[in-house]
Amino acid sequence: MSEPAGLLSKVYTSTVNSYTMVFFSKNPWFGLLLMVVSFFDVYAGAAGLLSLLTANGLAWGLGLNRRNILSGFYGFNSLLTGLGLGLSFQPGPEFYLLLVATALATLFITLAFEGLLSKYALPYLTLPFLIAIWIATLAARNYSTMIPGESGIYTLSTIYERGGPLVVRIYEWFGDVSWPLFIKTYFKSLGAIFFQYHLFAGLLIAAGLLFYSRIAFLLSVTGFASAWGFYLLIGANMNELNYGFIGFNHILTAIAIGGFFMIASGWSFLWVILVTPIISMITAGFAELLGIIQLPVYSLPFNLMVLLFLYAMKFREKMQMKPEPVAVQHYSPELNLYIGQNSGERFRNKSYLPVSLPFFGVWTVNQGHNGEFTHQEEWRHAWDFVITDEAGKEFSGEGAKVSDYYCFDKPVTAPANGWVEEIVDSIDDNPPGEINLGRNWGNTIIIRHSERLYSKLSHLKKGSIKVKQGSYVHQGQVIASCGNSGRSPYPHLHFQLQSTPHIGSATLNYPVSQYLSYQEPVQLKLYEIPLKNEQVSNLAPEPALVKAFHFIPGQNIEYSSDNGTFPDGTWKVNADLYKNQFIEDSSTGAKAYFTTDGSMFFFTHYEGSRDSLLYFFYLSAYKVPMVYHRDLVTRDTFPPSSFGISWARVIQDIVAPFYLFIKPEYKMAITERQEDLAGNRFQLGSSCKLSVAGLNLAGYRFSLIIAENRLQSVSIGSGKINTTVHFKNN
């Protein structure tokens, strides 16, 4: 791209996003529509555009954060300031001088609020606009060349002057339309957000809002309706909502706390209703106070309410009254909900420190949590593990000697990294059938993994402990052997997690991070509790799979399609400022974010064109186990936003805060494994399916070939696309 074209692209992006950011969006079509609406009053629209271009230009010149400029963060407050001043004063050289100065001041105020509120992880919203326009309005009273605008006084004359008789007739038609007052006021309140005080502007904004986000539109109606109902109930003057356009504060607040800063849900809608009286009181109170100096309230109630709400949410210790805050902002209530909820389910155990099974090979849970013998009351969260043969027996021969038991003297490993806190290693092993009640736990090791997490391994073989108290151990390191000491009639390994470092401490209900379960069908379980009689083992990652899905920032991956379905191109592996890794398609700009822990590879989020090859790779490798078992099938669920808009998706968007009925399915299995001189060769088969009420709306099948420790090809099969893509890593 040439330098002038690149500059124009940046100016366009930063400008359009400045408009759409007023509604917490980055949708370019919505931004263009809002720009058109702002020019219903040509002078005001021009003043708003000039103001935001001035602010963005200064931001570029000062070398401010490029991403923030392109996102419109530094332009939308100056846009609102320009629109407000454009309606307040008649155009002229002196006015534009004041406008440019106010735009620059708005940027400086924006930076000040950004620095101040970012310390508390709070947004600055439209506070810079408020401060700047109030200061400019007060200052203009001392400037004799500033002539007040007449658009709010001689409305029809102004419209005739700026649009002619046709525009006047359109304005009068919308003014005379016999719709209920509630509906007309709602649309006028939407228009007032962009200083357009008529019905047609509100209709266009409502249409754009519905196109951008069904949830945001529903929230806007909910916020306004709750305000309308409160005003009726309390006996307030409804003309305040109709002519003072106080309603837009309720609308913006509803969108902000209902679906932008908080994940949309029944709880967020409830909070929208609950804060309505507070917004009304703030509006009425500050209207009286600011009326003394003849200043409008503008968006002050919205700012105060949202900041108070977000700040209050930071003091929660438990989310007994939700909603949940948005962890990663996608600038769409739907995406915030779908991706947030999907990630919450897929990675709900991310806060757990990973703990593995403390042994090699396949063992059986002889006694689980809430056991029938000893795992009861405050010690109920524990496991007893043994080794069994195909017949389910724990020993060979008659089982008269401890050495007859398959698990006796087998290695015991550290379940996680940590420091050895306590050791007992001098208690004799019992003959089968006998127990030592005096030394209940037998030979034991306690390991400290974190401040409030310890593991305890008991009934170990006498003299088998290979570590010393105070030493550091690594996950999987052999630390002892299974025995039959203490209250143990037959050889087994007792394993529990606890919050204190003492032998005999109460147990914690804490999951094992990853393991294979050999009950039919074989399953890979993540952060679950092994159950009684379940046969389990740790994961044994396949080096070829680990290397194939070990994408490194800076790595380039070239690809070419057999039949030209996708033009030849290159992917590049990158990482953002928050160390989130992603693969980016250089030709389309699409991005697929991923994470891996050495035993599982996950795609976490996709953004960009659904015509890109990267989109289909995201679908094909959504969740890839780094382990092999011929009967292992991996399943997962995509967020509803992974597929295009359809009639079902539109309905889902509307009811999504309350119920999800679209749950696209993902399935993967390793269908073939071969050994050759270059290492193992794997063929992975995966599929994704979107069906609603028995109707298949979308579906794909994929085949991935892993050879020579890298991804070699992906075959895509669907009704429209059938091709094989080959890869070359640089």
TrEMBL record:
Superkingdom of this protein's organism: Bacteria
TM region(s), chain numbering: 29-62, 69-89, 95-113, 120-140, 190-212, 217-236, 293-312
A Pfam match: Peptidase_M23
GO cellular component assignments: plasma membrane
InterPro entries: Ammonium/urea_transptr, Dup_hybrid_motif, M23ase_b-sheet_dom, Urea_transporter
Keywords on record: Cell membrane, Membrane, Transmembrane, Transmembrane helix
Localization (cell): Cell membrane
Record membrane topology: Multi-pass membrane protein
Chief place where the protein resides: membrane
Domain M23ase beta-sheet core: 410-499
GO molecular function: urea transmembrane transporter activity
UniProt xrefs under SUPFAM superfamilies: Duplicated hybrid motif
Family of the protein in this entry: Belongs to the urea transporter family.
UniProt name for this protein: Urea transporter
